[in-house]
Amino acid sequence: MPPMSDITINGHKIEVLFAERTISKRVDELAREVASVKPQQLLVVPVLKGSFIFAADLLRAFYDAKLLPEVDFMMLASYRDKTVSSGQIEVLRDVETDVRGRDVLLIDDILESGRTLAYAKDLLVARGANRVMVAVLLDKPGKRAVSIKADFCGFECPDKFVVGYGMDMAHAYRELPFVGHVLNPDK
Ligand code: IMP
Ligand code: MG
């Protein structure tokens, strides 16, 4: 864990959990980890929207790691009310690429209940992908509802609602270059 600090933005007090430099070093390592499994005909699929910054940085790190992926996108929505996740996933935007016989790397921001990524993984396996791997920036293992493991994970995350580096609170704070926890969401 990096040294903790608090930052106040627009009245929200945000506790920094993962600093910019900490994330960028880990992203470079993750690219090397992905390269080490020697993916074949690699198709990278960021799951929108929360993964967009992590995916952009990881993909640029693939250049130094000598990976030559193709990239396509998926947008998924999971329905939940405040307390219960219904477990229902809807595909809002599907990949245009035929995944048959290919190695696919799904990228997401957080693995929480696991429902979103388990759904995406099963879908691509059913379409004939050779191997479907999962890369997430953060893992909240305490919240898992279905059995799924990330093949590549940036950091284990405490059971706190986090924002930044693509992740939002009501569409705000995606632009933050660090990951933080909003201490006073109802300010
Ligand atoms: P699950 O694994 O299906 O429960 O879904 C994980 C998704 O929930 C992530 O891709 C995020 O979009 C969202 N999510 C979970 N925890 C957080 C959080 O702390 N901040 C922002 N989004 C979150
Ligand atoms: Mg998401």
Give a quick set of tags describing it.
globular; 22% helix; 187 residues; binds magnesium ion; 11 strands; Rossmann fold; alpha/beta
Write the layout of secondary structure elements.
Blueprint lengths: L4 E5 L2 E7 L1 H17 L6 E6 L3 H13 L5 E2 L2 E7 L4 E9 L9 E9 L3 H12 L4 E9 L12 E5 L5 E2 L15 E4 L5
Parallel strand pairs: 3-4, 3-5, 3-7, 7-8, 8-9
Antiparallel strand pairs: 1-2, 2-11, 5-6, 10-11
The chain binds inosinic acid (IMP) and magnesium ion.
Magnesium ion binds next to β7.
Tell me what the structure shows.
The chain is α/β, with parallel strands linked by helices. The protein has one domain: Rossmann fold. Helices cover about 20% and strands about 35% of the residues. It contains 3 helices and 11 strands; from the N terminus they run ββαβαββββαββββ. The strands form 2 sheets. Strands 3, 4, 5, 6, 7, 8 and 9 form a 7-stranded mixed β-sheet that branches. It has a 4-stranded antiparallel β-sheet with strand order 1-2-11-10. α3 links the parallel β7 and β8. α1 crosses α2 (about 50-65). The chain is globular and about 50 Å long. The mean pLDDT is about 95. The protein binds inosinic acid (IMP) and magnesium ion. Inosinic acid binds near residues 108 and 113. Inosinic acid (IMP) binds next to β7 and α3.
